[in-house]
């Protein structure tokens, strides 16, 4: 794309164009299908010139920058292609996204075929005289199409594998000769491929064809003969002028027609394009490396390695996708002049400090290669011994030495017992965190493992006692296999633990359900004169208040008479939707996060089920009830969806109406169970045929059915759920920072807008140094006392700003760990990234309020006394004001990018979106609370209004373009 005299030259790559069409340079997209002039006018002021010619070009595969030079694509258009702003045809996709050779032993040669059939062009002298459409409604346009070149373009990509007895240079020379000969074979009927090239060589060639007819114009797996036929068909199409498409267009700026139509079109500097290309090329090389790694023999032997490689590949692909999405959102804004180019460099800098930087990926590769080299050594050493695959963790020289010693002992023991049919020998690898040694030998008897040392050969015998009829001999102990360790019985095998977390709304019946579950587990029968109460209800609380105030875990071990044969942990959580409202729900979410952060044995590391308790009789879900469902489910990662058990309380024998309501609300529910615990604490004086006894039996069968299904559920790690909670916490903290930053910025902008009007109004007085008085609204800090609240803050002494309003860290010496600090210990909130050591836990918040101040002309002069060269005083002041506005925009855009990363990640991993991020949903909640007017509704509405303000910001964050 050239920019001589403002005219842009652009490759089409499958985009449709016609003369007079409007175009937006900032997004590289046509604005509308209609033209600047009527079709008959365009026909009158345009001309067509037939100029048929074609050419071939052969070159080796290069990177994106080299390929772009071959096709005449400049850095700005390249940036739009790379980020997806322009969706090109097969050729464009190959150039930008590439299809690099998947192996190092592949040679690639590319044949570019290009023809030109004709040109269409507008006469600009005539165009200026003709009336054109009113562009007031299309002011997003910057250019219009003034010239089009028609023809065809195609690429033939030839690949050839280098065999072990060949050199790369020889194969490359042979392949280049074959590609150079293709046009001759295709055009001359008396020349055949076999006349010029050995048939065996031809059979080794594979070709992929990229055309320009449609978006998906590509064909892979072609032979050399197929490529010849395709080339010949292209020649025939050109000779008959068939299937021509726009190849290139020239774009005139709208200002050539009318000077008032000047639209900004900032050019992104080439270093930004080159930096992004380098990052993407690094990602592509890494993905190519991973694809080759999975075919390694060692990797195929150990599936856990394949899983790790696959996880790494998915993470890189996901990060690359998010990076390109962010760039594509920012490019039109920066090109339009609404944002500085620094917002793009900030994004690139974030990549440089992330684990996905080249150094981080290289470190991962190095570690993986060392591990695979060590494993391949052991595979060779244990030839002939059956391998049982699992996972592995080897690290450190000490472990390697121990491993070598034990490997020798094990191999010798196998040789001595290879004919023993009662024993079987295997080697495998263990999961990290199982408690087993990283290198160990174990004996399995009846399925139970015990530590085992192969008996060694005894030392040289010697006489200890002799007499006339006998000799007593002894010998030295073996260097291994002579130690006996007494193991307690409970250590011979791990005890299976199943974990159920019970969640639900206040008043759903969780407490009674858990008490009923405990009586079932402990084998209590109807005729027994006692009942167990794990949770004692407070009779002074109504059903609108949760009985449970903290998360509590109860663990039951299997014992004689117990209904379950495994260790069972039930986690009781406070009810959502308490009269205390949203504030209480946030506390519960934080409690769950803290509970999940406790490692075993005091904490848990997995869940086998989530029991969602709700009343069976709910025929429809009101907005507050739907909020409770979504709030609970939004806590968890999406990998727990199959482990959700709907536990329907107060159920009878009919179809539970709540199931229809749940389905309508799109709440995941594969399994549900009905419970009626009305007879749990009833008097058992009646006969076995009484109603209470009947309900007791029904309850027993319900629990029996539930635990039968629960025993079959597979455990799910808490890793993803912990990540969801962490991301939500970080997003909430970002909102706390984003709200005041935006408010301060807007207030400052308003203050300066007022001063700009005053500058214009008093321009003569300022230029002649006359005094005057004016009023202006300004934002000033004030302190909010926190004494007695128990809250901690992180406040910057340098910026005089509260960077974190509710910090968990009270000790100033530990402020480096505050959520507002980055990995380098610098504050992400402070405008100059102050160090953590400049922050303190002060007993007050620094907030800002708007007040009206009376100022004098001297105040203005002191504030803007720096004049701008070549401008009046007033113009200089306004120029300084605009510089400040640009700085405010850059800071807000950086924080919006950070919020986007959290949102993208949450969309991928969370089971349900947080209901408090949806503006319309919160409006329904507010309206519902006002209509029902239940106790505490005013306080709840106040919390929902605050959440709505945050959600409105969040909705803007999701679409950066909409913000601007």
From TrEMBL:
Q: Which InterPro entries match?
A: Cytolytic_pore-forming_toxin, G_SEPTIN_dom, P-loop_NTPase, Stonustoxin-like_helical
Q: Name one GO molecular function term.
A: GTP binding
Q: Which ranges carry the Stonustoxin-like helical domain? A: 279-373
Q: Which UniProt keywords apply?
A: GTP-binding, Nucleotide-binding
Gene3D superfamilies attached to this UniProt entry: P-loop containing nucleotide triphosphate hydrolases (3.40.50.300)
SUPFAM superfamilies from the UniProt entry:
P-loop containing nucleoside triphosphate hydrolases (SSF52540)
Looking at the Swiss-Prot or TrEMBL record, what is one Pfam family this protein matches?
Stonustoxin_helical
Septin-type G domain location? 499-579
- The coiled-coil segments of this chain are none
What family is it from?
Belongs to the TRAFAC class TrmE-Era-EngA-EngB-Septin-like GTPase superfamily. Septin GTPase family.
- Quote the protein name from its UniProt record: Stonustoxin subunit alpha
Q: Which organism is it from?
A: Stylophora pistillata
């Amino acid at each position: 794309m050239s920019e001589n005299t403002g005219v842009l030259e652009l490759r089409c790559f499958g985009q449709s164009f016609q003369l007079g069409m409007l175009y937006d340079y900032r997004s590289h997209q046509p604005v509308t299908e209609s033209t600047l002039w009527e079709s008959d006018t365009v026909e009158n002021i345009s001309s067509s010139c037939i100029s048929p010619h074609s050419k071939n070009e052969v070159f080796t595969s290069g990177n994106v920058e080299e390929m772009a030079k071959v096709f005449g694509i400049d850095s700005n258009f390249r940036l739009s292609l790379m980020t997806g702003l322009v969706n090109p045809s097969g050729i464009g996709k190959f150039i930008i996204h590439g299809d690099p050779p998947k192996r190092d032993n592949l040679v690639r040669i590319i044949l570019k075929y290009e023809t030109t059939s004709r040109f269409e062009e507008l006469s600009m002298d005539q165009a200026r005289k003709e009336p054109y459409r009113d562009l007031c409604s299309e002011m997003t346009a910057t250019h219009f199409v003034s010239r089009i070149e028609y023809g065809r373009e195609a690429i033939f990509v030839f690949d050839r594998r280098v065999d072990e007895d060949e050199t790369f240079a020889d194969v490359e020379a042979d392949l280049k000769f074959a590609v150079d000969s293709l046009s001759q074979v295709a055009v001359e009927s008396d020349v055949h491929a076999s006349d010029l090239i050995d048939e065996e060589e031809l059979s080794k060639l594979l070709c992929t064809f990229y055309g320009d007819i449609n978006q998906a114009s590509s064909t892979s797996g072609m032979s050399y003969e197929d490529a010849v036929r395709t080339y010949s068909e292209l020649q025939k199409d050109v000779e008959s002028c068939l299937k021509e498409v726009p190849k290139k267009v020239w774009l005139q700026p709208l200002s050539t027609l009318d000077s008032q139509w000047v639209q900004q079109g900032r050019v992104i500097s080439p270093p930004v394009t080159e930096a992004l290309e380098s990052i993407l090329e690094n990602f592509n090389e890494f993905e190519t490396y991973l694809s080759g790694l999975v075919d390694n023999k060692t990797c195929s032997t150990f599936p856990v390695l394949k899983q790790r490689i696959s996880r790494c590949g998915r993470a890189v692909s996901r990060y690359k996708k998010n990076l390109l999405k962010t760039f594509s959102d920012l490019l039109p804004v920066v090109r339009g002049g609404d944002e500085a180019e620094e917002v793009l460099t900030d994004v690139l800098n974030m990549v440089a400090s992330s684990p996905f930087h080249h150094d981080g990926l290289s470190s991962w590769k190095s570690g993986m290669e060392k591990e695979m080299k060590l494993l391949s050594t052991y595979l060779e050493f244990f030839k002939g011994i059956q391998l049982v695959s699992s996972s592995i963790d080897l690290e450190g020289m000490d472990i390697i030495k121990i491993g070598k010693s034990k490997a020798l002992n094990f191999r010798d023991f196998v040789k001595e017992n290879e004919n023993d049919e009662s024993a079987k020998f295997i080697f495998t690898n263990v999961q990290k965190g199982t408690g087993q040694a990283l290198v160990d030998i174990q004996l399995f008897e009846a399925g139970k493992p015990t530590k085992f040392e192969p008996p060694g050969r005894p030392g040289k015998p010697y006489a200890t006692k002799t007499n006339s009829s006998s000799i007593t001999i002894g010998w030295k102990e073996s260097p291994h296999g002579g130690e006996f360790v007494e193991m307690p019985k409970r250590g011979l095998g791990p005890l299976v633990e199943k974990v159920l977390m019970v969640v639900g709304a206040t008043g759903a019946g969780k407490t009674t359900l858990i008490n009923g579950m405990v009586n079932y587990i402990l084998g209590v029968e109807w005729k027994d004169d006692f009942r167990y109460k794990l949770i004692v209800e407070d009779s002074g609380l109504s059903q609108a208040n949760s009985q449970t105030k903290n998360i509590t875990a109860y663990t039951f071990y299997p014992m004689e008479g117990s209904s379950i044969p495994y260790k069972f942990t039930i986690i009781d959580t406070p009810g959502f939707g308490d009269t205390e409202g949203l504030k209480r729900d946030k506390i519960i979410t934080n409690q769950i996060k803290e509970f999940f952060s406790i490692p075993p044995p005091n904490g848990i590391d997995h869940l086998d089920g989530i029991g969602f308790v709700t009343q069976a009789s709910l025929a429809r879900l009101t907005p507050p009830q739907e909020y409770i469902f979504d709030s609970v489910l939004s806590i968890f990662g999406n990998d727990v969806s199959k482990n959700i058990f709907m536990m329907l309380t107060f159920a009878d024998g009919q179809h539970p109406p709540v199931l229809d309501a749940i389905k309508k609300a799109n709440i995941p529910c594969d399994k549900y169970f009905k419970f009626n615990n009305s007879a749990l604490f009833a008097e058992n004086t009646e006969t076995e045929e009484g109603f209470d006894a009947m309900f007791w039996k029904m309850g027993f069968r319900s629990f029996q059915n539930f635990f039968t299904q629960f025993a079959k559920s597979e455990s799910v790690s808490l890793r993803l759920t912990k990540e969801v909670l962490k991301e939500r916490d970080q997003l909430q903290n970002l909102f706390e920072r984003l709200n005041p930053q935006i408010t301060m910025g807007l207030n400052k902008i308003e203050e300066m807008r007022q001063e700009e009007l005053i500058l214009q109004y008093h321009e003569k007085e300022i230029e002649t140094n006359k005094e005057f008085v004016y009023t202006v609204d300004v934002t000033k800090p004030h302190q909010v006392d926190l004494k007695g609240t128990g809250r901690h803050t992180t406040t910057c002494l340098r910026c005089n700003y509260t960077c974190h309003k509710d910090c968990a860290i009270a000790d100033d010496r530990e402020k480096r760990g505050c959520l507002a600090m980055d990995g380098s210990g610098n504050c992400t909130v402070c405008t100059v990234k102050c160090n953590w050591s400049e922050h303190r836990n002060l007993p007050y918040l620094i907030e800002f309020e708007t007040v009206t101040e009376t100022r004098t002309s001297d105040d203005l002069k002191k504030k803007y006394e720096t004049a701008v060269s070549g401008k009046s005083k007033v113009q200089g002041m306004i120029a300084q004001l605009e510089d400040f506005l640009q700085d405010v925009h850059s800071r807000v855009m950086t924080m919006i990018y950070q919020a986007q990363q959290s949102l993208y990640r949450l969309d991928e991993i969370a089971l349900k979106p947080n209901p408090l991020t949806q503006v319309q949903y919160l409006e329904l909640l507010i309206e519902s609370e006002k209509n029902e007017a239940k106790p505490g509704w005013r306080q709840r509405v106040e919390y929902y209004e605050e959440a709505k303000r945050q959600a409105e910001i969040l909705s803007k964050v999701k679409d950066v373009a909409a913000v601007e």
